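Researcher: Batch entry, complex prediction.
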Amino acid sequence: MDKILDTALLMLDGTQITLEIFILTLIIAVPLGLLASIGRLSHLHILSRIIELYIWIMRGTPLMLQLLFVYFALPMIGIKLPDIAAALLAFILNYAAYFAEIFRAGIQSVPKGQYEAAKTLGMSYPQTMRRIILPQVIRIVLPPVSNETINLVKDTSLVYILAMNDLLRVARTIVQREFDMTPFLIAGIFYLAMTAVLTWIFKKLEAHYGKYDK
Amino acid sequence: MANTTNDAAVMLSMKDIHKSFGSLEVLKGIDLEVREGEVLAIIGPSGSGKSTLLRCINMLETINSGSIAIKGETLVQTPPGGQAEYAAQHDCRRILAHTGMVFQQFNLFPHMTVLENLLEAPIQVKKMKKADVLPYAKELLKKVGLLDRADYYPSQLSGGQQQRVAIARALCMKPDIMLFDEPTSALDPELTGEVLKTMRELAEEHMTMVVVTHEMAFAREAASQVIFMADGVIVEQGEPEPFFSHPREERTRAFLQNML
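Model: Structure tokens for the complex:
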């Protein structure tokens, strides 16, 4: 029993890297995705096309490949980032692209009449977006954002290949050292615990933003 | 046209309005004038351009040529042989502040309560303090009979109630002209009455109104002027009594017969 506790404590260290990548990616990728979605919907054709290309590349190639690219290929052209920054860059760029598509769909699903009503009341475009459109978008995008966020928790394990000591790698190291499979089990429980917390948070958020529905 | 309101100020003047969507010309030279306190009802078959005409008044659509003036201020004009030239953006906004609009689909803000729907624009656009708008907002809700629903969300109201809130919301900005775009067309028949009653009361208070409608009874009883549009032109225009009793044009007669 003590041994399991020791192992779990060791793995908490790994969890720290996992959470760090998760939280920072989320904090930066969500607003970045929102900006990208607004740019994607912009009447500036060139901006819209550039963002479309970015989204296509990010969604069209494996996240693992993107990680390897940032970590190994960028240094070859003289851009050397610290390990965690390299991982974060790849995660943020990848997730911002997914969030951008979610937000775009959300913004487009708000009926045109909402913009027209705001306009006839004299509201400016920024006022309309901030006060009328985005609050409705939040409710619409919460379920898909929740989905992506839970994916992100699990995707953080991809930094395993960059030799960063995240939860999964710590578990693997102990397994190899001690020929005992319990660390994998504990890792699974840790991931489940994190996603359980997220599920609970999003449930609360959905209830809060959905209160105006019947 | 003998009309007692004729010496009242002109609130809305539209001259030679042309509007095309691509190659489809939907307005082919419309002229009209609405004076203070008048209620203009615009009727006609769907596709006649009547909703588009209404939406041109407050720039939800832009015109290709012609001129529009609201309360004597030019929103858009067209030099001879040229394209429509709109006033500067901030002028447009100031001029359009004289107008309020009610939509077929209500378009209430679903994430706000009834009261918040009314308060939103005065607070955000006119930068008024909540405490200063609140009495008027409540007075308007009382007027449309929904003060007891102030804290409800739109989804908790019937269509007729939602539309009355939408009317109150538009009025809360104190417009001088109210535009109604088929305000009862999305309602179940038993709910149109309450909305029309609210509109009649508004007309009795001498609100200047332009109403695109299929409600012939409303046009007949509440309007001071009726316009029949078809294929992008005004076919016939007049005061409701002669208009409905003795329509001059064959197309008007055919339309009115179909509506009954």
